């Protein structure tokens, strides 16, 4: 993509997200239709589905040859990373959305032949949009983020998955105790915005492509590390426990994970 194509794509996707946010806020106090997927804590609502259908429709019009991987299944069956792939999470943190009407995000990312091109994470309630990529830069609303301080695990707060901590998977309790404190937000998008703003030094959770697609692009652009929990390369279509952290915190965490 040349610079003009990047600018045009950023402008178009930002407009989609503004419109989608308005749609969600208009319906947020309405009675939701809530269904379960894999279990009682894995929810989907009529607004998740409507939002994904909205994004899929917009992407089909804007980039008709591309494949679309969406959490709720309104896109394509994507089994390889060839070509242009849009990855969509229409409501990230659905439990928060249902129970709190807060702390949830919308996420979109674009990959071409497995390489991250552009990512977008919108904190819906706070109206914060993190967007960009390696050839564009990363911005929070209109402010460019040039770097994230390379903080050690022991000097920062870390975002963790509640179930991983409760079950002490991968020595997660030691990781929490080594940090200055853990935070559990219940939304990958909200956690990752906090990492890229420098509020958290890392985030660990079991994630699927729509959960980490945008964050992976930002991490690679800003010099942070996003890998599997044991430090291996994270494939675009992977569904694994994921570790996002500053380089120093990433090193510290792997030492604990592998002990």
From TrEMBL:
Q: Name one GO molecular function term.
A: inositol monophosphate 1-phosphatase activity
| Keywords from the UniProt entry | Hydrolase, Magnesium, Metal-binding
Question: Known InterPro entries for this protein?
Answer: Inositol_monoP_metal-BS, Inositol_monophosphatase-like
| One of the GO biological process terms | inositol metabolic process
One family name in Pfam for this protein: Inositol_P
Swiss-Prot/TrEMBL cofactor(s) = Mg(2+)
CDD domains registered for this protein in UniProt: IMPase_like
Highest taxon of the lineage: Bacteria
Residues that coordinate or bind Mg(2+): 71, 89, 91-92, 211
**Identification of the protein by name:** Fructose 1,6-bisphosphatase
């Amino acid at each position: 993509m040349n610079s003009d194509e990047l600018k045009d794509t950023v402008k178009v996707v930002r407009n989609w997200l503004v419109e989608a946010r308005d749609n969600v806020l208009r319906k947020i106090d309405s009675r939701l239709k809530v269904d379960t997927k894999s279990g009682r804590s894995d929810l989907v609502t009529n607004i998740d589905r409507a939002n994904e259908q909205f994004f899929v429709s917009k992407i089909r019009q804007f980039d008709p040859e591309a494949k679309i991987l969406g959490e709720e299944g309104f896109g394509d069956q994507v089994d390889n990373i060839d070509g242009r792939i849009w990855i969509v999470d229409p409501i990230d943190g659905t439990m928060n959305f249902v129970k709190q009407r807060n702390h949830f995000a919308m996420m979109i990312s674009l990959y071409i032949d497995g390489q991250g091109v552009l990512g977008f994470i919108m904190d819906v309630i706070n109206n914060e949009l993190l967007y960009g990529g390696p050839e564009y830069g990363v911005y929070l609303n209109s402010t460019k983020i040039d770097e994230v301080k390379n903080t050690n695990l022991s000097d920062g707060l870390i975002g963790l998955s509640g179930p991983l901590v409760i079950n002490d998977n991968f020595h997660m309790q030691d990781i929490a105790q080594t940090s200055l404190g853990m935070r559990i937000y219940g939304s990958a998008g909200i956690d990752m915005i906090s990492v890229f703003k420098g509020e958290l030094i890392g985030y660990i959770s079991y994630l699927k492509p729509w959960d980490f697609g945008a964050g992976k692009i930002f991490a690679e652009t800003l010099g942070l590390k996003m890998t599997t929990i044991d430090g291996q390369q994270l494939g675009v279509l992977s569904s694994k426990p994921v570790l996002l952290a500053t380089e120093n915190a990433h090193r510290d965490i792997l030492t604990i994970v592998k002990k």
